[in-house]
Each structure stands twice: as C-alpha cells, then as structure tokens.
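User: I'm writing a tutorial on reading structure tokens. Could you give me a worked example: one chain, its sequence, then its tokens, then a sentence or two explaining what the tokens reveal?
Assistant: Sure. Here is the example chain.
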Amino acid sequence: MGMRSNPINWKWWMAGGSFVLSVLIGLSAYTFRKGQPAAHAHETHAVSDRGAMQVLAVHPRNGAMERTTTQPGSIHAYESVQLYAGVSGYLKTQAVDIGDRVKRGDVLVTVDVPELEKQVQRYKAGVDRARAVVIQMKARVASAKADREAARALVPQAEATAKSKAAELRFRERQLLRMRELLALKSVDERLVDEKIEQRDAAREAEISAQEAVNSAKSRLAAADAHVQQAEADVVEADAEVKVTQADLEKGELLVKFATVTAPFDGVVTQRNFFVGDFIRSASEGTHLPLLTVQRTDRMRVVVQIPDRDVPYADPGDPAAVELDALPGQKFQAKISRVSHSEDPSTRLMHIEIDLPNKAGKIRNGMYGRVTIMLDHFEGLAIPVSCLTGKPQEGKGNVFVIRDGHAALVPVTIGGDDGLQVGVLSGLRLEDEVIVHPPTGLADGTPVQVDSAGTLTTATAGH
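And here are its predicted structure tokens:
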C-alpha cells in the first residue's frame, strides 16, 4: 500500500500546483490590465484569438504642457563684503556689533594711526615749502627777463656809438689825406700833418673801443637770455617738486582715510572678529581675518544648479517658485535673474541665480529649500513619450495610430517635452488612438486590438 500511495500523492500535488499556478497567472494578467505601468506593457502583449496583436492606446490630450524642473536651492546675501583696515594700528573705535543694521557711508571702525597723521602734517609743510620755492623761481625769471631787456637796450646804443666812431675815423683819414696833399705842395707845415695823424689814430682807437662795446653788450644780452632760461628751468623743477610733495601728501591722506572703515551699502553686520584695543594689521600685510562682514539682505540671491537636460530651456525671466524648509507653507514667486551659460564639467550642472525680495527680512543667508522653474510652455496636443518609436531627430518622430483595426505608422512633428510627455505640432488629431509602448514586432499594417484594459488616459500612460 505504501508503494502504491506515492504515485497517487505525486499526481495530486501536480494537479494542485497547476491549478494554483493558473490562478496566479490570471491574477497577474488582471493586475497588469488594471494597474500595471504602461512602461512594461510590451512585455505582456499577446495575440488575440483572431490573430490581432493586443495593445494599449491613448488619445492625445489638448491643452497646455509645461516643462518644469525642481532642484535644491540655497540662499545667499545679495551682496556680501569683508571689511579690512587699509593701515596697521590699534582699533580705536568700533561703532557696531553683530546683528546691527547699517546705512551706506556709516563709520563702522576707526584705527589709531598717530605717526601717519604726523607724517601727513610734514607732507603738508613740504607742499607749502615747495610752492614758496616756485614763487621765488618765478620772481627770478622776472628779474632775469628785466636784466635781459636792459642788456638788449645796450646793444643798439653800443652799435650807434660804434658807427659814430667809424664815421669820425673816416673823417680823420680824409683830413690826413688833404694835409699830405697840401704838404706835397708846400702849402702847409709838416707839423699840421703830424697833428692829423694823431687825430686819425685816436679816432681809430675810439672806433675799436666802440666795436668792443658792441660785442660786450651782445655778450651781456646772451648771458641775460641764459639767465632767463635757467630761471624758467628752475620754475619747472620747483613745480615738479610741488607735484611730488603733493602726491606724498595725497598718499598720506589716503592712508589716514583707510584708517576709517565705512559701510559700502545698506545691510547688516554678520561677523565681528576684533574688539577696541586690538592691534589690527592692514590687508596689505596679509591678514586673513576681516574686521567686519556686512551683507545686503533687502534682496537675496537664490542659487540653483540645474542638470544638463534642462540647460537648453533655462533663460532669464523664466518663472520660478521658491519653497524654503525654514519657512514651511510659504511659496515665493520670482523669475530667473541670471544664467551662467556654462556647465561645470565635473558635475554637468549649470549655475543660475534668482533674485528674491526680502523686505520683511525673514529670509536669511544660508537657508535651503526647493526651487521649481517653469522652463517651457507648449499649447497643443500632447502624448506620452512612450508612444514614440525610436529616437526623435531634428524635431521629427514616428508613432503608431490605430486605424480600421490596424497599426498605422504616422510621422509627427514634435514641439517640446516635459520629460514624460511630448507636444505634437502636426501629424495627429484629437480623436486618434495612439499606441503606447509599441510592442516588438509591431509594423505598419499589423492587425491590432486594444487590450481589454481599454484606452488609457494620457496622464496614466505617461507613467
């Protein structure tokens, strides 16, 4: 009996197992038809008793389709500046502390620099002295020009005297000539000839002396010209010295000015590193700690990194909604303000910024949240991406449409997509039944039958 009972038990278990397996397969098929995602529909497509391939289909949806992206966003102050002292010294006054609000131009910190202030006073004295030298040099120029004019006046006077002496010499020579002629005729005494010779020689010496006086007057004029040029050069040098001392003074005054730190804009003090009496090193000496950090908070920057697939659609002016974890239940409407137009090669993300008004001051630097950006907007027919066969190229694609019980391959023009659906510019009508997840082996003209699950909605098929 034990030997005969084993075949009976084996057959009973085989029959029971087949029944359970059939039930499970039936339940699985029912579950697929009612709620299985369309993305796996091609794995369970079957052929009906009449030889038609069973498929799932959707009708195109008419209306607006938006392409959006939701990414993490971090809040930054619209402007943030670290303030350093321009000179080294002891912290003399500090009028603000962390959390204080400041106005543009407010004096925040002063550094005590007494030696520099004394040096500025010396520079001022140097400028005054240099300007006095300029006045002296200009007076010398005037004196030298006066001397030159006096020397110039002596030249024609000496030349006139020289001409007079030359004329007298010629007269004395003619007299001497007549006396010699008369002497030859024995009409005069030889003594008179000797007198004329002496007169002629005196006239000649006078003429030579007058010519030398002319040369001396011209030399004095040339010397006076040189004195004028020298005096004018001294003026130029004195002017240059004024500029040098003036530059030193301005540099000193600027350094003294650097000892006073003012607010560059309206904002709030967010960092303080020193107290009154501390020795402060200037920024040029390599200090790393700023005196204060001031941030502008009436407007904030929301920094978002968007992925490569959304980069072509991001433009300044695109609407954005900002939600912050620290302010639940509040949604801030804004627009993209700046786009970097460049992706980070290491992350394939592009930096964009959104300006967010902060009149109430509730938004703080460092907050974190989510930003939803509407990248594109399309009005027209829309179908799930899963309806497309193959990869679209240059805005063209293909879908299968059910017509008279057969699959018809229809070319369509694509307008845009949101990652789940694509907009169709031409090729489809609102009443068309478009096959979702075209099964392997489906070709133009293949007999098809809509699965008993019926025609899906566009939203359901998209998932």
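What the tokens reveal: The longest helix spans residues 114-184. The CA atoms of residues 144 and 226 lie 9 Å apart.
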